């Protein structure tokens, strides 16, 4: 009997809580989808029955935010729990496209020096799988035990490469991984980040026919169809968890990397230029359609389904998952455990940044910084960054006059009315909050973590 207790103690010391106490963890990460474009968020036309069902089983944060409105820095925040100016991934490329292969490696090497929730889960005995979007090298580079992305620039490795087939070309790699983990009787972590509903918008014809209408632009119809196609793949994944009888002990975390809107939705506005095939006040912008996302956490028997008015943020993924898995949460992380109502109650505002989409500078994240933003209750302040001459990194969402804009995002969620001149005291308070936040990021306890 003493020997039994000895081996049990060794297991707990080595791997945290025993296997039965540790949930499987599934991250579902949609790609380029506006915060409003789901059935459970009230969209009038887009149907997402599988995510709607998940929402009914989840703690739902309708006011979730990303650290940056662009896929690579947004995903890097999920992995590290840090803001872009801390982990160093501020855009999609180093020096545009010209020297990507040569210059990206030192940036990745610097990024991988930060603590990672993926490596922590792997070290704790989890089987971990990468599929879909993944920018930082191969799945091995990311610390996964298995995966799809090779990350080899000589073979066109970038932002997911072979992993981008997941969802669009079936679900077998991830369902096989779940089957393997069940056979091995080990807890698992699944990074499911399909290239959906991201362009190219090539949905099944049946879905395109469903959303096509005489009064609807084709780019909008294609996007709507892609949103439902993504939802169908989520249903396949969640259904497989149920078939394998592991859904009851699986924490599902849902979030989107950044927003998106079809180009035709702002084509009638002469002040809004189109960029890379999406509307300007969406992806890569500091507006709600760029930075806002619903966040859902489902954990049967552990998390009561409800809608929360509290803020959620992508910096919270690491501490939330680490806590649920029984791991130590690094003290330098700025996020909080979203499953703690007390922790959420202590947060009254959230922050983030917008950088140039390209031309990252290793060791100088402010070099391409364009905007900083803060949301507090109904107020949202956007501040244009004027710290450097950034003319070669032209701001895609620039305005000509005032360096700040203030919106009441509860009464004006589409941010049509700048009320900065009417509320100078709010502007001053939130601007100071942004300055304090930036200073706090570089305190000794957080610097170089």
What layout of secondary structure does this protein have?
Layout: H1 2-15, E1 24-30, H2 49-56, E2 59-65, H3 71-80, H4 84-87, H5 100-111, H6 117-123, E3 127-132, E4 146-147, H7 172-184, E5 188-193, H8 205-211, H9 218-243, E6 250-256, H10 288-291, E7 292-298, E8 306-313, H11 317-324, H12 341-345, E9 350-355, E10 369-376, E11 379-384, E12 404-408, H13 424-440
Parallel strand pairs: 1-5, 1-6, 2-8, 3-4, 3-5
Antiparallel strand pairs: 2-7, 6-7, 9-10, 10-11, 11-12
Helix pairs in contact: 8-9
Protein name: Sulfatase
Family: Belongs to the sulfatase family.
Pfam families: Sulfatase
Whole-number tally of structural domains: 1
What would you report as the Rg, rounded to the nearest angstrom? 21 Å
Q: Which percent range describes the beta-strand content?
A: 15-25%
Q: Distance N terminus to C terminus?
A: 44 Å
What is the averaged pLDDT score? 89
Reported CATH architecture: 3-Layer(aba) Sandwich
Q: Please tell me what the overall shape is.
A: globular
Fraction of residues in helix? 25-40%
Biggest sheet features: 8 strands, mixed
InterPro entries: Alkaline_phosphatase_core_sf (IPR017850), Sulfatase (IPR050738), Sulfatase_N (IPR000917)
Pfam families: Sulfatase (PF00884)
Keywords: Calcium, Hydrolase, Metal-binding, Signal
Cofactor: Ca(2+)
